């Protein structure tokens, strides 16, 4: 079973890229972030024609998350992160898909930091930590996949000294990510590639992709019951070089069948 996460940076403007990638790689489950489309503008029919069921939570101009499933249905669990009834940003979607609980998230960027946006990021992370801990207690097979907007370690960023004051790399953000790992979640790509430099995002400016001046901010955290089934994973680097593509590349893991 192949599960992927992909920040599409505007699903309608990147739809040809998304459909090409789906056709070439055929992931079973896909978590999408940054749809940048209201609910009614989600390209459901195009994805259906490509063989995917979809559940989505749109939002005008920004944010937005979706879960796709190839040739099977999706059962919705929730479409907002619990803990703050006033937070209506479309950043979390959870569903039961092909026997696995899938949480798709688009964590706040938090810049400029310090400031209100960074405060919101940290508050969101606190809620997420509480919710993630409860998911672990359920002992369900769970994967939490998406754009975390966190650079966990120096190995995950080109020239880390340039990012010390950025919200993605500030100590508070990295510690929050480590807290999730301490709960019992496994950073799937790091389990497979403990020392390798892996990037999932490259800025459009300064020829970052060609220079491989990137960041690893898209992550797949898996529960203990799934960690033993992890057999492969990677980053689809070439997709970042396609015409009119996102500034992120798709990230994926493969789990052994039970």
UniProtKB/TrEMBL annotation:
<dbReference type="InterPro" id="IPR005135">
    <property type="entry name" value="Endo/exonuclease/phosphatase"/>
</dbReference>
<keyword id="KW-0378">Hydrolase</keyword>
<comment type="similarity">
    <text>Belongs to the DNA repair enzymes AP/ExoA family.</text>
</comment>
<keyword id="KW-0479">Metal-binding</keyword>
<dbReference type="InterPro" id="IPR036691">
    <property type="entry name" value="Endo/exonu/phosph_ase_sf"/>
</dbReference>
<dbReference type="InterPro" id="IPR020847">
    <property type="entry name" value="AP_endonuclease_F1_BS"/>
</dbReference>
<dbReference type="InterPro" id="IPR004808">
    <property type="entry name" value="AP_endonuc_1"/>
</dbReference>
<feature type="domain" description="Endonuclease/exonuclease/phosphatase">
    <location>
        <begin position="4"/>
        <end position="248"/>
    </location>
</feature>
<protein>
    <submittedName>
        <fullName>Exodeoxyribonuclease III</fullName>
        <ecNumber>3.1.11.2</ecNumber>
    </submittedName>
</protein>
<dbReference type="InterPro" id="IPR037493">
    <property type="entry name" value="ExoIII-like"/>
</dbReference>
<dbReference type="Pfam" id="PF03372">
    <property type="entry name" value="Exo_endo_phos"/>
</dbReference>
<keyword id="KW-0460">Magnesium</keyword>
<dbReference type="InterPro" id="IPR020848">
    <property type="entry name" value="AP_endonuclease_F1_CS"/>
</dbReference>
<dbReference type="GO" id="GO:0008311">
    <property type="term" value="F:double-stranded DNA 3'-5' DNA exonuclease activity"/>
</dbReference>
């Amino acid at each position: 079973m192949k599960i992927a996460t992909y920040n599409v940076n505007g699903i309608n403007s990147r739809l040809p890229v998304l459909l090409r990638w789906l056709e070439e790689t055929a992931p079973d489950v896909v978590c999408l972030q940054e749809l940048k489309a209201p609910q009614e503008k989600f390209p459901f029919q195009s994805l259906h024609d490509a063989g995917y069921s979809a559940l989505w939570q749109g939002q005008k101009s920004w944010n937005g998350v979706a879960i796709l499933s190839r040739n099977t249905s999706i059962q919705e669990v929730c479409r907002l992160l619990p803990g703050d009834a006033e937070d209506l940003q479309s950043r979390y979607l959870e569903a039961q898909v092909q026997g696995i609980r899938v949480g798709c998230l688009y964590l706040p960027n938090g810049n400029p930091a310090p400031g209100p946006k960074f405060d919101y990021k940290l508050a969101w992370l606190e809620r997420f930590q509480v919710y993630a801990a409860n998911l672990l207690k359920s002992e369900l097979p769970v994967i939490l996949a998406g754009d975390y907007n966190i650079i966990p370690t120096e190995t995950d960023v080109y020239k880390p000294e340039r990012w010390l004051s950025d919200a993605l790399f500030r100590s508070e953000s990295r510690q929050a990510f480590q807290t999730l790992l301490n709960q019992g979640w496994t950073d799937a790509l790091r389990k497979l590639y403990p020392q390798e430099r892996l990037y999932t995002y490259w800025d459009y400016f300064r020829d970052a992709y060609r220079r491989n001046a990137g960041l690893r901010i898209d992550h797949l955290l898996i529960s203990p019951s799934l960690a033993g089934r992890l057999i492969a994973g990677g980053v689809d680097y070439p997709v970042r070089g396609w015409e009119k593509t996102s500034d992120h590349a798709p990230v994926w893991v493969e789990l052994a069948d039970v």
